[in-house]
């Protein structure tokens, strides 16, 4: 059961803070100053007549003001065209003409819409400028501020604007690639507490569990996804070892772009980019608390406090804390998590916004396992699904600490400078004891107990600087974005085997307490320098408005890349790498936009060595996509349909024929092609009824250079067909306080295939043998009986929760899907 968001502005402490902030702000005479600035500043506006929400996005971008409104206030209204040079106040007055709305200043660069007052004869007129706290649940429409993409309080499953794939806030229709947004409302409705679980529900994304919770990997279109925060420089979540993504308690929403994003991310991962947007402080006091209790002794609590903290409301803060303790369906495993997050935001001047903050997350997992063996005949052993083949001293511990700073500076006209800095430290330690080797199903003989200890520490330093704005040449409007980003990552770590001689392990009568923890070898040094990677890139895009309906975008990136392995003993450099980008979009109507885009792929592989010690060349290729996007009901409902093709070459493939160290090294693969269709419809289909439905068809194959494998699936863990549905509706009439929701995920069959190492009793690799294990098609969260994945999957099922939010209760059915494949990675298999 979960306890939802409760606004406690009526509580004594919060009310006192609100009154003090309001009195200080009123006494400052700030409305007069803000109005004078808005009247004195002259800017050039070019906003066509269109729906009010979309017009407000353009206004925010061109004026530098952040415009907020109640979620339903702007819907269903049409804005007048505004063109020419004038003050922002005059432009907004013209824009709102005939809508029945007026505006008021609530900050140095923030404006709130509200119904216009009526005169004695009933005529609607613009009211006076006033200052008050912005109403709760306001949806932001400004594109000139980092707050523009926030979804908190919108109560919507779709976003007015996103930053992924462009660095500046743009409507979904303006991005010529497939984009999915997991909004704040949807995260709450589906009781999603981790970024990995959010990705499980996102259209076109496959999440696969690794060897032990929570080492999930995630992909789209058959390829990996890059990660970043707040549209900043790209980070790498699995540099040497995957330490997981942040807890959802610190996030406002998640943006997923499918397809290469090499122009801004440097690494042109064909799968796309995940942009995690952190929560921001609100301009009014709010305190919320969430409690959750679930199966297998799962308990979670979270507290979120935000509001103005000084400087006449121009300094705002937010603090989030979350705690979770849980067991797993397999014994004796458990996990404890602690999350802390703090952020402050200051209007330094009327044109300067400074944001800074930090976070800390710690996860401790006991009873961690490393996979499930199979019979020598490759059959499922039929072990009980609640049994963990792990010693009771096995553990995995993770710690992540992060500091970040963001500066946004308006530079005359509609030009904006943004600086985004992040410093992140990740540490990871584990000890594992687990059976390794295939099993004789009659005698139970075969597996030996393997044990290992590993310590890793990753340090990431990320920087991103952009400047964007508009200008006119030959009567055409052009949007220019230019920037640089820098990525510096370094990793220390080492590992050691705990068993010089491995004892036998009976998997049919496995006792987690039956194997005492062996001593760590005295020669073990916890941290040794692994190596690091650095990337510096400069990029620019120019979007030209050829007509009111036709837009052409051209972009290019120049990157330098350096990779050091083993403290400089092996160095790889690739300088002067050019990555081009091009796109065309055409508005066929007020609701539909056709588009096409192209970008190249570049992924360095300095850490992958051949059997001779040479480093693999970078992955190269290209991505092409054509599609149509639609927006209806004043932006409340968005849809897209896209077809794509990805051609890639030089990807790393394990070299099992190496005469020196079998299974350790890599060869560059030949040509691979992935192609398919993405379709999505998200938003409010009827008043009070939100829905998200996404379908993906993907076909990825070895195209050439693989001999007999040509035509076979390249990444068969990506389903060919995948459908994800979630919906939530408010009941009518007297039942309006009740909301009902539910969903289902369905996918076609998948499989894993490859070569496994053959290990003798002494632990020596003596050869390899091929394998293939299949997961049948399923819907919901439970595969068909007999499927090999069944014994190690968390059935999840339908989770039911009750929420309280201003006396509103919701009934939620959350469906978790895409369980882990049980086939152990080749280096952990033995036949």
TrEMBL record:
<dbReference type="InterPro" id="IPR010105">
    <property type="entry name" value="TonB_sidphr_rcpt"/>
</dbReference>
<dbReference type="GO" id="GO:0015891">
    <property type="term" value="P:siderophore transport"/>
</dbReference>
<keyword id="KW-0675">Receptor</keyword>
<feature type="region of interest" description="Disordered">
    <location>
        <begin position="772"/>
        <end position="802"/>
    </location>
</feature>
<dbReference type="GO" id="GO:0009279">
    <property type="term" value="C:cell outer membrane"/>
</dbReference>
<dbReference type="GO" id="GO:0038023">
    <property type="term" value="F:signaling receptor activity"/>
</dbReference>
<keyword id="KW-1134">Transmembrane beta strand</keyword>
<keyword id="KW-0798">TonB box</keyword>
<protein>
    <recommendedName>
        <fullName>Secretin/TonB short N-terminal domain-containing protein</fullName>
    </recommendedName>
</protein>
<dbReference type="InterPro" id="IPR012910">
    <property type="entry name" value="Plug_dom"/>
</dbReference>
<feature type="signal peptide">
    <location>
        <begin position="1"/>
        <end position="36"/>
    </location>
</feature>
<keyword id="KW-0410">Iron transport</keyword>
<dbReference type="InterPro" id="IPR011662">
    <property type="entry name" value="Secretin/TonB_short_N"/>
</dbReference>
<keyword id="KW-0472">Membrane</keyword>
<dbReference type="InterPro" id="IPR037066">
    <property type="entry name" value="Plug_dom_sf"/>
</dbReference>
<dbReference type="Pfam" id="PF07660">
    <property type="entry name" value="STN"/>
</dbReference>
<dbReference type="InterPro" id="IPR039426">
    <property type="entry name" value="TonB-dep_rcpt-like"/>
</dbReference>
<keyword id="KW-0813">Transport</keyword>
<keyword id="KW-0812">Transmembrane</keyword>
<feature type="compositionally biased region" description="Basic and acidic residues">
    <location>
        <begin position="782"/>
        <end position="795"/>
    </location>
</feature>
<dbReference type="Pfam" id="PF00593">
    <property type="entry name" value="TonB_dep_Rec_b-barrel"/>
</dbReference>
<dbReference type="GO" id="GO:0015344">
    <property type="term" value="F:siderophore uptake transmembrane transporter activity"/>
</dbReference>
<dbReference type="Pfam" id="PF07715">
    <property type="entry name" value="Plug"/>
</dbReference>
<feature type="domain" description="Secretin/TonB short N-terminal">
    <location>
        <begin position="65"/>
        <end position="116"/>
    </location>
</feature>
<keyword id="KW-0998">Cell outer membrane</keyword>
<dbReference type="InterPro" id="IPR000531">
    <property type="entry name" value="Beta-barrel_TonB"/>
</dbReference>
<keyword id="KW-0408">Iron</keyword>
<keyword id="KW-0406">Ion transport</keyword>
<comment type="similarity">
    <text>Belongs to the TonB-dependent receptor family.</text>
</comment>
<dbReference type="InterPro" id="IPR036942">
    <property type="entry name" value="Beta-barrel_TonB_sf"/>
</dbReference>
<keyword id="KW-0732">Signal</keyword>
